[in-house]
Design goal:
The complex is a heterodimer. Chain A is of the alpha+beta class. Chain A folds into two domains: 1-114, no CATH class; 122-248, Histidine kinase-like ATPase, C-terminal domain (Heat Shock Protein 90, 2-Layer Sandwich). Chain A has helices spanning 3-80, 86-113, 116-121, 123-137, 155-174, 205-211, 217-226, and strands at 141-145, 180-188, 191-198, 230-235, 241-248. Chain B is mainly α. Chain B has one domain (2-205). In chain B, helix 2 (15-24) packs parallel to helix 8, helix 4 runs antiparallel to helix 5 and helix 5 packs antiparallel against helix 6 (117-140). Chain B is globular, with a radius of gyration of 18 Å. The relative contact order of chain B is 0.14. Classes of the chains: A alpha+beta, B mainly alpha. The interface between A and B is medium-sized, with 36 and 33 residues.
Chain lengths: 249, 217
Amino acid sequence: MYTHEARIYYTLLIGAGILAVILSFYMITVIRQHRKRVLSYKDKIITEIIVLEKERGRIAADLHDELSPLLSAIKLYLGCLETLLPEDIELIAKMENCIDISMQKMRDISNNLMPTLLQHKGLFPAIQELCLSVTSAGSIKVDCQFPEADIQFGKEKEIHIYRIIQEILHNAGKHASATKIDIRLWVEKKQLCLLLSDNGIGFDEASVTKKSKGLGLYNIIKRVDLLQGSIYLSTQPGQGVSYSIYIPV
Amino acid sequence: MFFYWLNHISTASILIPCIIGAVRYTKIPDLYQPFLYFIWLGSLNELISMILVNTQHPNLVNSNMYVLLEYALILFIFFRWNDAKNRNRYYLLLLTGLVIWILENIVINSLQTINAVFRVFYAFIVLYLSINQVNMLIVSEKKRLISNTIFLCCLSFIFYFSYKAFIETFYILHPPFSKPFYIHLFMILLSINFFTNLVYAIAILCIPTRREFIIPC
Protein backbone atom coordinates (compact mmCIF):
# COMPACT_ATOMS: atom_id res chain seq x y z
CA MET A 1 0.00 0.00 0.00
CA TYR A 2 1.36 3.46 -0.96
CA THR A 3 1.85 6.21 1.65
CA HIS A 4 -1.04 8.36 0.42
CA GLU A 5 -3.25 5.26 0.33
CA ALA A 6 -2.22 4.34 3.86
CA ARG A 7 -3.28 7.81 4.98
CA ILE A 8 -6.68 7.39 3.29
CA TYR A 9 -6.97 3.88 4.67
CA TYR A 10 -6.31 4.99 8.26
CA THR A 11 -8.74 7.88 7.83
CA LEU A 12 -11.37 5.40 6.65
CA LEU A 13 -10.48 3.06 9.48
CA ILE A 14 -10.92 5.80 12.07
CA GLY A 15 -14.18 6.84 10.39
CA ALA A 16 -15.47 3.27 10.44
CA GLY A 17 -14.34 2.91 14.06
CA ILE A 18 -16.19 6.08 15.07
CA LEU A 19 -19.30 4.83 13.27
CA ALA A 20 -19.01 1.48 15.04
CA VAL A 21 -18.69 3.26 18.40
CA ILE A 22 -21.77 5.41 17.60
CA LEU A 23 -23.72 2.30 16.57
CA SER A 24 -22.64 0.47 19.73
CA PHE A 25 -23.60 3.46 21.84
CA TYR A 26 -26.99 3.56 20.10
CA MET A 27 -27.54 -0.14 20.79
CA ILE A 28 -26.53 0.19 24.45
CA THR A 29 -28.91 3.13 24.78
CA VAL A 30 -31.68 1.07 23.17
CA ILE A 31 -31.09 -1.80 25.63
CA ARG A 32 -30.99 0.54 28.63
CA GLN A 33 -34.12 2.43 27.58
CA HIS A 34 -35.88 -0.86 26.94
CA ARG A 35 -34.92 -2.10 30.42
CA LYS A 36 -36.33 1.11 31.95
CA ARG A 37 -39.50 0.73 29.91
CA VAL A 38 -39.98 -2.88 31.01
CA LEU A 39 -39.47 -1.87 34.65
CA SER A 40 -42.02 0.93 34.36
CA TYR A 41 -44.43 -1.48 32.64
CA LYS A 42 -44.02 -3.92 35.55
CA ASP A 43 -44.55 -1.13 38.08
CA LYS A 44 -47.68 -0.13 36.19
CA ILE A 45 -49.19 -3.61 36.18
CA ILE A 46 -48.24 -4.17 39.83
CA THR A 47 -50.07 -0.97 40.77
CA GLU A 48 -53.06 -1.82 38.54
CA ILE A 49 -53.42 -5.32 39.93
CA ILE A 50 -52.85 -4.35 43.57
CA VAL A 51 -55.50 -1.63 43.27
CA LEU A 52 -57.86 -4.11 41.58
CA GLU A 53 -57.34 -6.77 44.24
CA LYS A 54 -57.72 -4.25 47.08
CA GLU A 55 -60.94 -2.96 45.58
CA ARG A 56 -62.26 -6.49 45.09
CA GLY A 57 -61.40 -7.33 48.69
CA ARG A 58 -63.11 -4.17 49.94
CA ILE A 59 -66.30 -4.82 47.95
CA ALA A 60 -66.35 -8.47 49.10
CA ALA A 61 -65.89 -7.39 52.73
CA ASP A 62 -68.59 -4.70 52.42
CA LEU A 63 -71.01 -7.17 50.91
CA HIS A 64 -70.30 -9.68 53.63
CA ASP A 65 -70.18 -7.32 56.60
CA GLU A 66 -72.68 -4.63 55.72
CA LEU A 67 -75.32 -6.12 53.46
CA SER A 68 -75.48 -9.64 54.83
CA PRO A 69 -76.55 -8.66 58.40
CA LEU A 70 -79.17 -6.31 56.96
CA LEU A 71 -80.70 -9.07 54.86
CA SER A 72 -80.64 -11.40 57.88
CA ALA A 73 -82.39 -8.71 59.92
CA ILE A 74 -85.08 -8.29 57.25
CA LYS A 75 -85.66 -12.04 57.28
CA LEU A 76 -85.88 -12.00 61.08
CA TYR A 77 -88.43 -9.16 61.07
CA LEU A 78 -90.49 -10.94 58.44
CA GLY A 79 -90.59 -13.98 60.74
CA CYS A 80 -91.95 -11.78 63.49
CA LEU A 81 -94.93 -10.73 61.43
CA GLU A 82 -98.16 -12.33 62.62
CA THR A 83 -100.93 -12.69 60.14
CA LEU A 84 -103.76 -15.13 59.57
CA LEU A 85 -104.54 -14.17 56.01
CA PRO A 86 -103.37 -16.97 53.66
CA GLU A 87 -102.39 -14.41 50.96
CA ASP A 88 -100.09 -12.63 53.44
CA ILE A 89 -98.57 -15.91 54.66
CA GLU A 90 -97.82 -16.84 51.05
CA LEU A 91 -96.37 -13.39 50.38
CA ILE A 92 -94.11 -13.59 53.44
CA ALA A 93 -92.87 -17.03 52.35
CA LYS A 94 -92.09 -15.64 48.90
CA MET A 95 -90.21 -12.70 50.43
CA GLU A 96 -88.21 -15.03 52.69
CA ASN A 97 -87.35 -17.14 49.67
CA CYS A 98 -86.21 -14.05 47.77
CA ILE A 99 -84.04 -13.01 50.72
CA ASP A 100 -82.48 -16.50 50.84
CA ILE A 101 -81.69 -16.33 47.12
CA SER A 102 -80.26 -12.81 47.55
CA MET A 103 -78.04 -13.97 50.41
CA GLN A 104 -76.82 -16.94 48.40
CA LYS A 105 -76.12 -14.72 45.36
CA MET A 106 -74.31 -12.25 47.58
CA ARG A 107 -72.17 -15.00 49.07
CA ASP A 108 -71.33 -16.19 45.54
CA ILE A 109 -70.39 -12.69 44.40
CA SER A 110 -68.37 -12.10 47.55
CA ASN A 111 -66.61 -15.43 47.14
CA ASN A 112 -65.94 -14.71 43.51
CA LEU A 113 -64.44 -11.34 44.39
CA MET A 114 -62.27 -12.70 47.20
CA PRO A 115 -62.42 -16.47 47.68
CA THR A 116 -62.49 -17.27 51.38
CA LEU A 117 -61.19 -20.79 50.78
CA LEU A 118 -58.11 -19.34 49.09
CA GLN A 119 -57.47 -17.10 52.07
CA HIS A 120 -58.01 -19.79 54.67
CA LYS A 121 -57.03 -23.11 53.10
CA GLY A 122 -54.70 -22.24 50.22
CA LEU A 123 -54.55 -22.52 46.46
CA PHE A 124 -55.40 -26.13 45.64
CA PRO A 125 -58.65 -26.38 47.68
CA ALA A 126 -59.74 -23.01 46.26
CA ILE A 127 -59.14 -24.17 42.68
CA GLN A 128 -60.89 -27.45 43.47
CA GLU A 129 -63.89 -25.49 44.68
CA LEU A 130 -63.79 -23.22 41.64
CA CYS A 131 -63.76 -26.24 39.32
CA LEU A 132 -66.67 -27.81 41.20
CA SER A 133 -68.69 -24.60 41.05
CA VAL A 134 -68.09 -24.25 37.28
CA THR A 135 -69.03 -27.91 36.73
CA SER A 136 -72.13 -27.66 38.90
CA ALA A 137 -73.19 -24.45 37.11
CA GLY A 138 -74.06 -26.52 34.05
CA SER A 139 -72.58 -26.82 30.63
CA ILE A 140 -68.83 -27.24 31.32
CA LYS A 141 -67.15 -30.27 32.86
CA VAL A 142 -63.91 -29.30 34.54
CA ASP A 143 -61.39 -32.01 35.31
CA CYS A 144 -58.49 -30.91 37.51
CA GLN A 145 -55.43 -32.70 38.81
CA PHE A 146 -53.06 -31.38 41.47
CA PRO A 147 -50.03 -32.70 43.32
CA GLU A 148 -51.02 -34.56 46.46
CA ALA A 149 -48.71 -32.60 48.72
CA ASP A 150 -49.96 -29.23 49.88
CA ILE A 151 -47.57 -26.64 48.48
CA GLN A 152 -47.59 -23.04 49.65
CA PHE A 153 -46.69 -20.37 47.11
CA GLY A 154 -47.30 -17.26 49.19
CA LYS A 155 -50.58 -15.37 49.51
CA GLU A 156 -49.91 -12.88 46.69
CA LYS A 157 -48.74 -15.47 44.21
CA GLU A 158 -51.68 -17.73 45.04
CA ILE A 159 -54.23 -15.03 44.34
CA HIS A 160 -52.66 -14.32 40.93
CA ILE A 161 -52.55 -18.02 40.01
CA TYR A 162 -56.16 -18.37 41.14
CA ARG A 163 -57.22 -15.36 39.06
CA ILE A 164 -55.43 -16.71 35.98
CA ILE A 165 -57.33 -19.99 36.23
CA GLN A 166 -60.57 -18.13 36.98
CA GLU A 167 -60.11 -15.93 33.89
CA ILE A 168 -59.29 -18.89 31.65
CA LEU A 169 -62.37 -20.79 32.88
CA HIS A 170 -64.46 -17.67 32.35
CA ASN A 171 -63.11 -17.26 28.79
CA ALA A 172 -63.69 -20.93 27.99
CA GLY A 173 -67.30 -20.69 29.09
CA LYS A 174 -68.15 -17.27 27.71
CA HIS A 175 -66.20 -17.02 24.45
CA ALA A 176 -65.00 -20.50 23.52
CA SER A 177 -68.26 -22.45 24.03
CA ALA A 178 -66.22 -25.23 25.58
CA THR A 179 -67.86 -28.27 27.16
CA LYS A 180 -64.76 -29.79 28.74
CA ILE A 181 -61.75 -28.22 30.41
CA ASP A 182 -58.71 -30.08 31.72
CA ILE A 183 -56.49 -28.49 34.34
CA ARG A 184 -53.14 -30.00 35.32
CA LEU A 185 -50.93 -28.45 37.96
CA TRP A 186 -47.53 -29.71 39.00
CA VAL A 187 -44.23 -28.43 40.31
CA GLU A 188 -41.09 -29.22 38.36
CA LYS A 189 -37.60 -27.71 38.41
CA LYS A 190 -38.62 -24.94 40.83
CA GLN A 191 -41.50 -23.98 38.54
CA LEU A 192 -45.22 -24.24 38.93
CA CYS A 193 -46.44 -25.75 35.66
CA LEU A 194 -50.02 -25.08 34.77
CA LEU A 195 -51.62 -26.71 31.77
CA LEU A 196 -55.18 -25.80 30.84
CA SER A 197 -56.89 -27.03 27.72
CA ASP A 198 -60.45 -26.79 26.48
CA ASN A 199 -62.40 -28.26 23.59
CA GLY A 200 -63.95 -24.95 22.53
CA ILE A 201 -63.96 -23.09 19.24
CA GLY A 202 -60.39 -21.77 19.63
CA PHE A 203 -59.23 -18.57 17.97
CA ASP A 204 -56.72 -17.12 15.58
CA GLU A 205 -53.68 -16.27 17.71
CA ALA A 206 -52.30 -13.74 15.22
CA SER A 207 -55.51 -11.71 15.05
CA VAL A 208 -55.77 -11.55 18.85
CA THR A 209 -52.13 -10.43 19.09
CA LYS A 210 -52.78 -7.82 16.42
CA LYS A 211 -55.83 -6.44 18.26
CA SER A 212 -53.59 -6.18 21.35
CA LYS A 213 -56.33 -6.52 23.91
CA GLY A 214 -59.36 -8.62 24.49
CA LEU A 215 -60.89 -11.82 25.78
CA GLY A 216 -59.37 -11.29 29.20
CA LEU A 217 -56.12 -12.57 27.72
CA TYR A 218 -54.49 -9.26 28.45
CA ASN A 219 -55.25 -9.69 32.17
CA ILE A 220 -53.89 -13.24 32.14
CA ILE A 221 -50.67 -12.11 30.47
CA LYS A 222 -50.35 -9.18 32.89
CA ARG A 223 -50.54 -11.53 35.87
CA VAL A 224 -48.08 -13.98 34.29
CA ASP A 225 -45.69 -11.08 33.67
CA LEU A 226 -46.12 -9.95 37.23
CA LEU A 227 -45.17 -13.42 38.46
CA GLN A 228 -42.17 -13.36 36.08
CA GLY A 229 -43.52 -16.44 34.39
CA SER A 230 -44.03 -17.41 30.78
CA ILE A 231 -47.16 -18.31 28.87
CA TYR A 232 -47.45 -20.44 25.74
CA LEU A 233 -50.61 -20.76 23.76
CA SER A 234 -51.60 -23.40 21.29
CA THR A 235 -54.80 -22.71 19.43
CA GLN A 236 -56.43 -22.70 16.05
CA PRO A 237 -59.98 -21.89 15.04
CA GLY A 238 -62.12 -24.94 15.79
CA GLN A 239 -59.44 -26.79 17.73
CA GLY A 240 -59.75 -25.51 21.28
CA VAL A 241 -57.16 -23.65 23.29
CA SER A 242 -54.28 -25.02 25.29
CA TYR A 243 -52.48 -22.75 27.75
CA SER A 244 -49.11 -23.73 29.23
CA ILE A 245 -48.03 -21.42 32.01
CA TYR A 246 -44.78 -21.67 33.93
CA ILE A 247 -44.30 -19.66 37.11
CA PRO A 248 -41.12 -19.68 39.18
CA VAL A 249 -41.81 -20.70 42.79
CA MET B 1 0.21 -14.06 5.89
CA PHE B 2 -2.02 -12.27 8.41
CA PHE B 3 -4.67 -11.78 5.71
CA TYR B 4 -4.46 -15.47 4.85
CA TRP B 5 -5.14 -16.55 8.44
CA LEU B 6 -7.78 -13.92 9.04
CA ASN B 7 -9.57 -15.02 5.88
CA HIS B 8 -9.52 -18.66 6.96
CA ILE B 9 -10.59 -17.97 10.55
CA SER B 10 -13.38 -15.65 9.41
CA THR B 11 -14.60 -18.19 6.84
CA ALA B 12 -14.42 -21.09 9.28
CA SER B 13 -16.25 -19.15 12.00
CA ILE B 14 -19.54 -19.68 10.12
CA LEU B 15 -19.24 -23.32 11.15
CA ILE B 16 -19.95 -22.41 14.79
CA PRO B 17 -23.54 -21.15 14.25
CA CYS B 18 -23.93 -23.74 11.50
CA ILE B 19 -23.25 -26.67 13.86
CA ILE B 20 -25.21 -25.18 16.78
CA GLY B 21 -28.11 -24.61 14.38
CA ALA B 22 -27.99 -28.21 13.15
CA VAL B 23 -28.05 -29.51 16.73
CA ARG B 24 -30.94 -27.27 17.77
CA TYR B 25 -32.96 -27.40 14.52
CA THR B 26 -35.67 -29.82 15.67
CA LYS B 27 -36.07 -28.15 19.06
CA ILE B 28 -36.84 -24.61 17.92
CA PRO B 29 -40.10 -22.98 16.72
CA ASP B 30 -40.50 -22.80 12.94
CA LEU B 31 -40.38 -19.00 13.20
CA TYR B 32 -36.60 -19.21 13.54
CA GLN B 33 -35.95 -21.94 11.01
CA PRO B 34 -35.44 -19.58 8.01
CA PHE B 35 -32.60 -17.99 9.94
CA LEU B 36 -30.89 -21.38 10.15
CA TYR B 37 -31.39 -21.82 6.39
CA PHE B 38 -29.66 -18.45 5.97
CA ILE B 39 -26.69 -19.66 8.05
CA TRP B 40 -26.49 -22.94 6.15
CA LEU B 41 -26.73 -21.17 2.81
CA GLY B 42 -23.84 -18.91 3.87
CA SER B 43 -21.77 -21.94 4.90
CA LEU B 44 -22.49 -23.67 1.60
CA ASN B 45 -21.38 -20.60 -0.34
CA GLU B 46 -18.21 -20.31 1.75
CA LEU B 47 -17.47 -23.97 1.06
CA ILE B 48 -18.05 -23.64 -2.68
CA SER B 49 -15.94 -20.46 -2.78
CA MET B 50 -13.13 -22.16 -0.86
CA ILE B 51 -13.11 -25.14 -3.24
CA LEU B 52 -13.16 -22.88 -6.29
CA VAL B 53 -10.39 -20.60 -5.00
CA ASN B 54 -8.21 -23.55 -3.99
CA THR B 55 -8.63 -25.07 -7.46
CA GLN B 56 -7.64 -21.76 -9.08
CA HIS B 57 -11.17 -20.92 -10.28
CA PRO B 58 -12.97 -17.60 -9.76
CA ASN B 59 -15.80 -17.62 -7.24
CA LEU B 60 -17.70 -14.72 -8.78
CA VAL B 61 -20.53 -16.74 -10.35
CA ASN B 62 -21.54 -18.49 -7.15
CA SER B 63 -21.07 -15.25 -5.14
CA ASN B 64 -23.31 -13.27 -7.48
CA MET B 65 -25.98 -15.97 -7.32
CA TYR B 66 -25.56 -16.33 -3.57
CA VAL B 67 -26.29 -12.65 -2.86
CA LEU B 68 -29.64 -12.94 -4.63
CA LEU B 69 -30.59 -16.06 -2.68
CA GLU B 70 -29.38 -14.48 0.55
CA TYR B 71 -31.44 -11.36 -0.14
CA ALA B 72 -34.59 -13.43 -0.77
CA LEU B 73 -33.96 -15.47 2.37
CA ILE B 74 -33.39 -12.39 4.53
CA LEU B 75 -36.65 -10.92 3.24
CA PHE B 76 -38.38 -14.19 4.14
CA ILE B 77 -36.79 -14.12 7.62
CA PHE B 78 -38.14 -10.64 8.30
CA PHE B 79 -41.50 -11.57 6.80
CA ARG B 80 -41.78 -14.47 9.27
CA TRP B 81 -40.48 -12.45 12.21
CA ASN B 82 -43.27 -9.93 11.56
CA ASP B 83 -45.94 -12.65 11.71
CA ALA B 84 -46.34 -12.68 7.92
CA LYS B 85 -47.77 -9.15 7.89
CA ASN B 86 -47.31 -6.63 5.02
CA ARG B 87 -46.88 -9.35 2.41
CA ASN B 88 -46.99 -6.81 -0.43
CA ARG B 89 -44.09 -4.82 0.98
CA TYR B 90 -41.85 -7.91 0.87
CA TYR B 91 -43.01 -8.82 -2.63
CA LEU B 92 -42.20 -5.31 -3.78
CA LEU B 93 -38.74 -5.42 -2.18
CA LEU B 94 -38.07 -8.84 -3.69
CA LEU B 95 -39.23 -7.73 -7.13
CA THR B 96 -37.14 -4.55 -7.01
CA GLY B 97 -34.08 -6.53 -5.94
CA LEU B 98 -34.66 -9.09 -8.66
CA VAL B 99 -34.93 -6.39 -11.34
CA ILE B 100 -31.70 -4.73 -10.14
CA TRP B 101 -29.91 -8.09 -10.01
CA ILE B 102 -31.03 -9.10 -13.52
CA LEU B 103 -30.11 -5.70 -14.95
CA GLU B 104 -26.68 -5.74 -13.33
CA ASN B 105 -25.77 -9.42 -13.65
CA ILE B 106 -27.32 -10.31 -17.00
CA VAL B 107 -28.19 -7.20 -19.04
CA ILE B 108 -25.37 -4.74 -18.21
CA ASN B 109 -22.59 -6.99 -16.89
CA SER B 110 -22.25 -10.74 -16.52
CA LEU B 111 -22.10 -13.21 -13.64
CA GLN B 112 -18.31 -13.37 -14.04
CA THR B 113 -17.79 -9.74 -12.96
CA ILE B 114 -17.88 -7.99 -9.58
CA ASN B 115 -21.41 -6.53 -9.47
CA ALA B 116 -21.70 -4.24 -6.49
CA VAL B 117 -24.83 -2.16 -7.18
CA PHE B 118 -27.17 -4.94 -6.10
CA ARG B 119 -25.01 -5.61 -3.03
CA VAL B 120 -25.23 -1.98 -1.94
CA PHE B 121 -28.98 -1.96 -2.60
CA TYR B 122 -29.66 -5.09 -0.59
CA ALA B 123 -27.36 -4.03 2.25
CA PHE B 124 -29.45 -0.87 2.62
CA ILE B 125 -32.70 -2.86 2.53
CA VAL B 126 -31.41 -5.22 5.23
CA LEU B 127 -30.34 -2.21 7.30
CA TYR B 128 -33.77 -0.66 6.93
CA LEU B 129 -35.54 -3.89 7.92
CA SER B 130 -33.18 -4.48 10.87
CA ILE B 131 -33.59 -0.97 12.30
CA ASN B 132 -37.36 -1.26 11.85
CA GLN B 133 -37.35 -4.62 13.64
CA VAL B 134 -35.25 -3.28 16.55
CA ASN B 135 -37.72 -0.41 16.96
CA MET B 136 -40.61 -2.86 17.03
CA LEU B 137 -38.85 -5.01 19.62
CA ILE B 138 -38.38 -2.01 21.89
CA VAL B 139 -42.16 -1.63 21.92
CA SER B 140 -43.27 -5.26 22.12
CA GLU B 141 -40.59 -7.19 23.99
CA LYS B 142 -41.07 -7.53 27.73
CA LYS B 143 -38.11 -9.75 28.52
CA ARG B 144 -34.35 -9.01 28.33
CA LEU B 145 -33.48 -7.61 24.92
CA ILE B 146 -29.86 -8.74 25.08
CA SER B 147 -30.87 -12.41 25.04
CA ASN B 148 -33.49 -11.98 22.34
CA THR B 149 -32.55 -13.88 19.18
CA ILE B 150 -34.20 -11.43 16.80
CA PHE B 151 -32.51 -8.47 18.47
CA LEU B 152 -29.08 -10.13 18.31
CA CYS B 153 -29.55 -11.03 14.66
CA CYS B 154 -30.65 -7.47 13.79
CA LEU B 155 -27.67 -6.12 15.71
CA SER B 156 -25.33 -8.30 13.63
CA PHE B 157 -27.11 -7.34 10.42
CA ILE B 158 -26.74 -3.65 11.25
CA PHE B 159 -23.00 -3.91 11.92
CA TYR B 160 -22.22 -6.23 9.02
CA PHE B 161 -24.33 -4.64 6.32
CA SER B 162 -23.34 -1.06 7.26
CA TYR B 163 -19.75 -1.89 6.49
CA LYS B 164 -20.74 -4.09 3.56
CA ALA B 165 -22.63 -1.18 1.94
CA PHE B 166 -19.64 1.06 2.58
CA ILE B 167 -17.05 -1.31 1.11
CA GLU B 168 -19.14 -2.19 -1.94
CA THR B 169 -19.30 1.47 -2.99
CA PHE B 170 -15.55 1.20 -3.70
CA TYR B 171 -16.33 -1.51 -6.23
CA ILE B 172 -18.98 0.71 -7.86
CA LEU B 173 -16.82 3.85 -8.08
CA HIS B 174 -13.51 2.04 -8.72
CA PRO B 175 -11.24 4.69 -7.14
CA PRO B 176 -7.65 4.18 -8.34
CA PHE B 177 -6.22 2.42 -5.31
CA SER B 178 -3.74 -0.42 -5.26
CA LYS B 179 -4.61 -4.04 -4.54
CA PRO B 180 -3.10 -3.98 -1.00
CA PHE B 181 -5.42 -1.09 -0.18
CA TYR B 182 -8.45 -3.17 -1.13
CA ILE B 183 -7.05 -6.14 0.79
CA HIS B 184 -6.80 -3.96 3.90
CA LEU B 185 -10.38 -2.78 3.42
CA PHE B 186 -11.46 -6.37 3.00
CA MET B 187 -9.64 -7.37 6.21
CA ILE B 188 -11.96 -5.13 8.22
CA LEU B 189 -14.94 -6.87 6.63
CA LEU B 190 -13.44 -10.25 7.57
CA SER B 191 -13.06 -9.12 11.18
CA ILE B 192 -16.69 -7.91 11.26
CA ASN B 193 -17.74 -11.18 9.63
CA PHE B 194 -16.00 -13.13 12.39
CA PHE B 195 -17.68 -11.04 15.09
CA THR B 196 -21.05 -11.40 13.31
CA ASN B 197 -20.76 -15.18 13.13
CA LEU B 198 -20.08 -15.33 16.87
CA VAL B 199 -23.18 -13.22 17.55
CA TYR B 200 -25.20 -15.51 15.23
CA ALA B 201 -24.02 -18.48 17.31
CA ILE B 202 -25.14 -16.76 20.54
CA ALA B 203 -28.43 -15.82 18.87
CA ILE B 204 -29.08 -19.45 17.92
CA LEU B 205 -28.31 -20.54 21.47
CA CYS B 206 -30.85 -17.97 22.70
CA ILE B 207 -33.68 -19.33 20.52
CA PRO B 208 -36.42 -20.49 22.89
CA THR B 209 -37.78 -24.00 22.47
CA ARG B 210 -41.30 -22.61 22.28
CA ARG B 211 -42.63 -19.28 21.19
CA GLU B 212 -44.05 -17.27 24.07
CA PHE B 213 -47.45 -15.66 23.70
CA ILE B 214 -47.24 -11.89 23.99
CA ILE B 215 -49.59 -9.01 23.49
CA PRO B 216 -47.66 -5.75 23.01
CA CYS B 217 -47.86 -3.64 26.17
